[in-house]
């Protein structure tokens, strides 16, 4: 590892001031950034370790919304009674990320800011119509994910929390890459109060996206059969050594049907 400066602020205000330097990068769980630095894919002059900022952690219910601090670990979300009672699908998703080390070090905010094409949390954020809070604004889920490893975050902007509306039903199903535990295809289905349905896919393209054809079908008939009847075009989907675009297109409605069935259990 090459030499770099390490800062450890105690507040969001202090961290944001340090991140005003374009050569600084925020360090949350480090599960992606440290690996990238070891491979020389990222070479920041300084890291701003967010680990000592208590205000970035925590899980609480605010009315019909679940608010989770950006620095909350995957393992804490998976084990939280509040999450299990409010949005069990989110607890299950968190418990299926990576392995024990990743779940105990990785964070919600770090995952969203990194925006890996196969990460699980982006599907939940889109599928639940969540809001990403930062040190300066609130960003709607539909506006946050811009492309491969690209988000709406501006230079120096820091995610502080995520607000998840509590749905009537929700479930997440993923077809797992057995080596990385990332989603080869992951589908999150959320049914909002009032019947509006959101379906989000991850692992299929440059970043997570909503599957509007499935949403329309499920708003008419919220059933596994309705999901399985939808045909998804492979155009624009990823092809790699793990799966072709056509195979991913086939999996999307299959997994959506399983997610609908699971949400109604």
TrEMBL record:
Domain FAD-binding PCMH-type intervals: 1-169
Entries under Pfam families matching the protein: FAD_binding_5
Record has Flavoprotein as a keyword: yes
Originating species: Noviherbaspirillum denitrificans
Protein known as: Carbon monoxide dehydrogenase
UniProt-listed SUPFAM superfamilies: CO dehydrogenase flavoprotein C-terminal domain-like, FAD-binding/transporter-associated domain-like
InterPro entries registered for this protein in UniProt: CO_DH_flav_C, CO_DH_flav_C_dom_sf, Diverse_Substr_Oxidored, FAD-bd_PCMH, FAD-bd_PCMH-like_sf, FAD-bd_PCMH_sub1, FAD-bd_PCMH_sub2, Mopterin_DH_FAD-bd
GO molecular function: FAD binding; oxidoreductase activity
Record's keyword terms, sorted: FAD, Flavoprotein, Oxidoreductase
């Amino acid at each position: 590892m090459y030499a770099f400066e390490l800062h450890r602020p105690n507040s969001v205000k202090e961290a944001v001031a340090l991140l005003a330097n374009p050569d600084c990068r925020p360090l949350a769980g480090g599960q992606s950034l440290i690996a990238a630095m070891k491979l020389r894919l990222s070479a920041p002059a300084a890291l701003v370790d967010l680990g000592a900022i208590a205000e970035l952690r925590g899980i609480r219910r605010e009315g019909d919304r679940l608010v989770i601090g950006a620095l909350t670990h995957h393992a804490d979300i998976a084990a939280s009674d509040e999450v299990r009672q409010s949005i069990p699908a989110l607890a299950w998703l968190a418990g299926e990320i990576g392995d024990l080390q990743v779940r105990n070090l990785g964070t919600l905010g770090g995952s969203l800011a990194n925006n890996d094409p196969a990460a699980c949390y982006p599907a939940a954020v889109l599928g639940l119509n969540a809001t990403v809070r930062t040190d300066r604004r609130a960003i709607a889920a539909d506006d946050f994910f811009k492309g491969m490893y690209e988000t709406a975050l501006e230079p120096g902007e820091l995610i502080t929390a995520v607000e998840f509306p509590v749905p009537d039903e929700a479930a997440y199903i993923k077809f797992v890459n057995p080596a990385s535990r990332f989603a080869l295809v992951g589908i999150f289905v959320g049914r909002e109060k009032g019947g509006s349905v959101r379906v989000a896919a991850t692992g299929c393209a440059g970043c997570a996206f909503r599957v509007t054809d499935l949403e329309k079908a499920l708003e008419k008939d919220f059933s596994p059969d309705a999901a399985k009847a939808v045909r998804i075009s492979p155009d624009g989907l990823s092809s790699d050594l793990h799966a072709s675009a056509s195979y991913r297109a086939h999996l999307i409605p299959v997994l959506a049907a399983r997610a609908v069935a699971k949400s109604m259990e």
